[in-house]
Write a structure and sequence with these properties.
Blueprint (H helix, E strand, L loop, with lengths): L5 H4 L1 E4 L28 H25 L3 E3 L12 E5 L6 H9 L6 E5 L7 H9 L2 E3 L6 H16 L3 E4 L21 H6 L3 E9 L8 E6 L11 H22 L7 E4 L8
Parallel strand pairs: 1-9, 2-8, 3-6, 3-7, 4-5, 4-6
Antiparallel strand pairs: 7-8
Helix pairs in contact: 2-3
Length: about 270
């Protein structure tokens, strides 16, 4: 479902919260090339990638986040990790979601790697920059070799104390003030490696100046897999606890509704 007029009308009509996507970038999603190098192991490439990530991207994008008025709540929770790698799960409500965790929330921490669609691979120069900045493109269904390589890279990065950022809602709903139900599939990753999960929710607050709302990032309590559970049991456990916590955080705050979301039935004139 595509609603190109939402910026003018400030209203979005939706049917399927699992599949509707209101991101207007409109890039193609090619398959990940065979043998794609998910692990960054070349020392020379890592040196220049580190300069790009830590010296250029983080300060510039961090200042952008400050300029946009982004705030953080409960950042002290992150101190409990003590250098341990973890998985971040957050709602997907803005284009800035892609970099605000890398440059702002975890500014003084190790890298944050992002799992996302393969859109960036359709742009020759951008795809190299995205890879250097830790973007991990999802293979298409049936691409088992690249899926195995992706999974191995996640273990590789978390063992280094790095973070993996996942948007379980999958699609952008701009300025949305609730948490959409999401599937449990992506929680297989922390369940396999017995890694902690960090729920983080973007809250929209009313601006003092201007019309567009400002973001507050609320960090939830870290969720740890259970030692006495199987991988599949932990997958479901982490999913359940993360979804519950994200919904609780979202409902706890009075949010500013900039875009009105209206659910419509199949066959409606708002297709």
């Amino acid at each position: 479902m595509n609603n190109k007029d939402w910026k003018k009308t400030k209203t979005i009509y939706w049917k399927d919260e699992l599949h509707d996507d209101f991101d207007e970038v409109g890039l193609s999603r090619p398959n990940v090339p065979e043998g794609y190098k998910y692990k960054r192991t070349n020392p020379i490439n890592n040196f220049f990638s580190g300069i790009l990530y830590h010296v250029i991207a983080k300060p510039v994008l961090g200042l952008y986040c400050l300029f946009k008025g982004i705030k953080i709540v409960n950042k002290k929770e992150l101190k409990k990790l003590k250098g341990q790698g973890a998985y971040i799960y957050s709602n997907h409500v803005a284009i800035s979601d892609v970099f605000k965790f890398q440059s702002f929330v975890f500014f003084n921490k190790k890298r944050v790697n992002i799992i996302g669609y393969s859109d960036s691979l359709s742009m020759p120069i951008v795809r190299n920059l995205c890879r250097a900045l830790g973007y991990l493109p999802l293979p298409l269904k049936g691409d088992l070799n690249n899926m195995v390589a992706l999974t191995e890279s996640l273990d590789f990065y978390t063992k280094k104390g790095q973070f993996i950022l996942i948007y379980p809602e999958a699609h952008i709903w701009p300025y949305y003030t609730k948490i959409r139900d999401f599937r449990s599939g992506s929680f297989i990753y922390p369940a396999r490696s017995m890694s902690p999960v960090i729920p983080i929710v973007t809250i929209w607050r009313k601006p003092i100046l201007g019309k567009k709302p400002k973001q507050t990032l609320v960090i939830g309590e870290i969720i740890y897999p259970k030692e006495n559970k199987s991988i599949m049991e932990n997958k479901d456990y982490l999913h359940k606890k993360c979804l519950e916590q994200m919904k609780e955080i979202s409902s706890r705050y009075e949010q500013y509704e900039y875009i009105t979301y209206i659910k419509v039935e199949e066959g409606s004139s708002n297709d």
